């Protein structure tokens, strides 16, 4: 098992804030919008640097999506900022008609995704957003795993023409990917080569997958670990190459089992190379209040859940 | 600027012919609101707006128009075709398979003249505000127009946008409400009353004006000119455009029943007899 280390833990939303500032410096057409959550989205640095390119919308997310769509017509590259719940479910029709169907170059940047939002509870803990957004034709869906990768993704999507959903979170997590990485939309990152099982993880579950890989090594299981930061378009080639080698797969995500990364992987396998699959995901339920660690433990979204899923899926191999 | 009102009226008559023929041709679509807004569309595209039929989506250096109540697509399509955005013959494909003239306007099939999809109501004002703010960032002094239905004002997003535009001094924007008092299920006063519409928009901080005769070309032209003169003064401008649903076809007027119903063959003949050919049918 390849060794991964980190010197500090940081929140992915701060990676977004840093990336937004950098994207703004690189391209004067980059503008930002926020629905009264500037501090939570870490947009302060961008606003300080480019006050005339920032639009405070107020608590009006539907209007924010429409204004963002309109700004693209004049050649702007709008980055909208609010919580994931309010970036998707609350404004689904606006995103669908004014952005996706109209193919507008809007970057929908969504913080506090999933259970790790924590104490605010289920009203704010979206576990459906990946599914909602990946169903929209033409929408790119990205869920990076740490600060550095979120920063790189934010810079990369500014250079991509078309609608993007960028999902990140609230808590600090180990910052282990390289600071100088180039982010390639739709390209899986192979974290560890192995032969017994493929673990495909996204977002906060990527570090948990690495932890699981170390535990599995102690148990004599050689896990291949893939970081899928882009859920759509999905790197089918990387997935198939790995599963053809290992013969089984565990998917891991901070999302409902229905509609998430696991579903996308299952569809690729069903069409091309049927193989046993286990899901580390929320089992079709809402979340609740608690600390992020408590919630990830209670809902089975951590390294030990991945280890258990690996053992189960290996036992299903023919 | 001298205005040939008679010529604009002739164009409007042809657009009305196009509308009833289009909805008859596919036996679906929304003739009522289309006929009611015909004079406004013709006044915009054949007089008031600076625009180029050699369509560029970014609309740099031009006035822009957004249709929020996308179901009145027949009047939008006919106006665009008659203004030279695409061949008038293409109007015959309205709502048919493989057409660029979808039931509701969209950029998806690349129809020149359309800058964003609309149809699901309440979204056009927000998009127009965004386009207007982009013009300001780009130091483009041209204007942005948006038309909404009055029933559409029942959508909450409209009022999010209504609150935003005055706060941000989006004064390069002219909104209009097709104030015909009717929606699918009946009179707006019965379905969900709009109350004192002028007072509502004024309370939100808009410069509100009314065009009482929204189907009289001279009044519409004068109203739009007046609205233009009020731009650039720190407030967004809105025109309450009093129209009659079905205007120009007697049996479609005075009722909400022709909101989204197509005429049969006999009704088409009666309607066309009231709308003489002026520019030639498609």
Automatic annotation (TrEMBL), chain A:
The protein's matches in Gene3D superfamilies, at most eight in alphabetical order, are given as: 3.40.50.920, 3.40.50.970
Co-factor(s): thiamine diphosphate
The protein's UniProt keywords, in alphabetical order, are: Thiamine pyrophosphate
Q: Which Pfam families match?
A: Transket_pyr, Transketolase_C
Q: Which SMART domains does the annotation name? A: Transket_pyr
Please report the stretch or stretches of sequence annotated as the Transketolase-like pyrimidine-binding domain.
10-175
Protein name from the UniProt record: Transketolase
UniProtKB/TrEMBL annotation, chain B:
Tell me where in this chain the Transketolase N-terminal domain is found: 12-268
This protein's UniProt keywords = Thiamine pyrophosphate
Q: What highest taxon heads this organism's lineage?
A: Bacteria
Cofactor annotation: thiamine diphosphate
Q: Does the keyword Cell cycle apply?
A: no
Which family is annotated?
Answer: Belongs to the transketolase family.
Q: Which PANTHER family match?
A: TRANSKETOLASE N-TERMINAL SECTION-RELATED
User: This protein is called what?
Assistant: Transketolase
Q: Which organism is it from?
A: Sphingobacterium alimentarium
């Amino acid at each position: 098992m390849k060794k991964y280390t980190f010197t500090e833990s940081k929140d992915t939303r701060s990676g977004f804030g840093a990336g937004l500032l950098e994207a703004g410096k690189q391209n004067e057409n980059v503008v930002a919008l926020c629905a009264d959550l500037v501090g939570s989205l870490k947009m302060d640095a961008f606003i300080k640097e480019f006050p005339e390119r920032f639009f405070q919308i107020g608590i009006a997310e539907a209007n924010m999506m429409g204004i963002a769509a309109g700004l693209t017509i004049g050649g702007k590259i709008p980055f909208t900022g609010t919580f994931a719940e309010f970036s998707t479910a609350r404004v689904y029709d606006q995103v669908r008609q004014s952005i996706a169907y109209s193919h507008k170059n809007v970057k929908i940047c969504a913080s506090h995704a999933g259970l790790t939002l924590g104490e605010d509870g289920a009203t704010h803990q979206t576990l459906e957003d990946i599914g909602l957004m990946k169903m929209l034709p033409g929408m790119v869906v990205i869920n990076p795993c740490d600060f550095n990768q979120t920063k790189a993704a934010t810079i990369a999507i500014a250079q991509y023409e078309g609608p993007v959903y960028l999902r990140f979170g609230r808590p600090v997590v180990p910052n282990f990917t390289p600071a100088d990485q180039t982010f390639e939309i739709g390209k899986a990152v192979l974290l560890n080569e192995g032969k017994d099982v493929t673990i495909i993880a996204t977002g906060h579950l990527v570090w948990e997958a690495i932890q699981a890989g170390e535990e599995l090594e102690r148990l004599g299981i050689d896990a291949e670990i893939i970081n899928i930061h882009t859920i759509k378009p999905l790197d089918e080639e990387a997935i198939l190459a790995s599963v053809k080698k290992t013969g089984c797969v565990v998917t891991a995500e901070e999302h409902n089992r229905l509609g998430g990364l696991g579903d996308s992987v299952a569809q690729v396998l069903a069409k091309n190379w049927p193989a046993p699959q286990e899901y580390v995901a929320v089992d079709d339920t809402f979340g609740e209040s608690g600390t992020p660690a408590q919630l990830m433990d209670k809902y089975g979204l951590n390294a030990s859940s991945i280890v258990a899923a690996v053992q189960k899926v290996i036992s299903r191999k023919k | 600027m001298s205005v040939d009102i008679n010529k604009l009226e002739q164009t409007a008559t042809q657009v009305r012919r196009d509308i009833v023929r289009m909805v008859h041709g596919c036996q679906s679509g929304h003739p009522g609101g289309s006929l009611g807004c015909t004079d406004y569309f013709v006044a915009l595209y054949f007089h008031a707006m600076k625009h180029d039929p050699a369509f560029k989506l970014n609309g740099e250096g031009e006035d822009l128009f957004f249709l929020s109540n996308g179901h009145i697509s027949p009047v939008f399509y006919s106006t665009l075709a008659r203004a030279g955005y695409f061949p008038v013959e293409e109007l015959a494909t309205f709502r048919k398979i493989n057409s660029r003239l979808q039931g509701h306007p969209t950029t998806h099939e690349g129809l020149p003249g359309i800058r964003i999809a609309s149809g699901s109501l309440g979204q056009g004002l927000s998009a127009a505000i965004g386009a207007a703010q982009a013009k300001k960032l780009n130091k483009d002094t041209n204007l942005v127009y948006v038309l909404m239905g009055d029933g559409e004002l029942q959508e909450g997003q409209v009022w999010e946008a209504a609150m935003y535009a005055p706060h941000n001094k989006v004064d390069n924007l002219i909104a209009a409400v097709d104030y015909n008092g009717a929606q699918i299920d009946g009179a707006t006063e019965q379905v969900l009353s709009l109350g004192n519409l002028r007072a509502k928009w004024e309370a939100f901080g808009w410069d509100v004006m009314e065009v009482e005769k929204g189907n009289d070309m001279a009044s519409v032209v004068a109203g739009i000119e007046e609205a233009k003169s009020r731009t650039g003064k720190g407030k967004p401008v809105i025109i309450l455009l009093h129209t009659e649903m079905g205007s120009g076809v007697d049996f479609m007027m005075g009722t909400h029943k022709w909101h989204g119903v197509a005429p049969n063959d006999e009704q088409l003949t009666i309607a066309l007899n009231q709308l003489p050919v002026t520019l030639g049918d498609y």
